[in-house]
Amino acid sequence: MLIQRLHLEQGILNSAVVGEFELAPAQRQFIELVNEAVQCGATKVLIEGQQVTGKPNLFERFLYGVFVATASLDVMNQHNTRLRFAYVIHEPVHDPGRIGETVAVNCGMDVKAFEDKNEAIQWLNQAA
Fold first, then answer.
1. Which helix or strand (DSSP H or E) is residue 48 part of?
2. Residue 100's pLDDT band (cuts 50, 70, 90)
3. How far apart (Å, rounded) are the C-alpha atoms in residues 78 and 72?
4. What element of type H or E holds 118?
């Protein structure tokens, strides 16, 4: 996986991610993304992963959910900030059962997955 484009637009750090989903690279990309959000002062992050391919298994979804929640909470605590994340992804990367999302939310992350970019932006802009 590779972050193809990063830009700040109307307070939202927008990230276009492409490639095959693999757990370790996805985790590294997430750390890069969170650090960039803090550096540019964004509190909302839109991850456009419509071009991400692959079919993560249940255990990978669980591990990714725990990892992103832990990583984002660590960075928020270190920098005394809040971050809200929206993923725009399609099946099979987007799990209709929302395992990874549920795990991340249960670990304290403010995150939601969407199929539609406009819905994701509307949700990001709602009061948390």
1. strand 44-53
2. very high
3. 10
4. helix 117-125
Integer Cα distance of 38 and 114 in angstroms: 23
Q: What would the two tokens of residue 2 be?
A: 């590779």
Which residues lie below 8 Å from residue 92, measured CB to CB, with a gap of 6+?
54, 55, 56
Question: Which domains, and CATH codes, for the chain?
Answer: 2-125 (3.30.750.24)
Structure tokens at 114: 């969407």
Element (H, E) at 58: helix 58-79
Please identify which residue in the block is written with the tokens 């949700």.
123
The SS3 call for residue 10 is coil
Rounded Cα distance between 90 and 8, Å, is 23
Q: What are the pLDDT digits (tens) for 82-98?
A: 999 999 999 999 998 99
Closest CA to 15 of 25, 24, 5, 23: 5
In which residue are the tokens 């830009």 written? 7
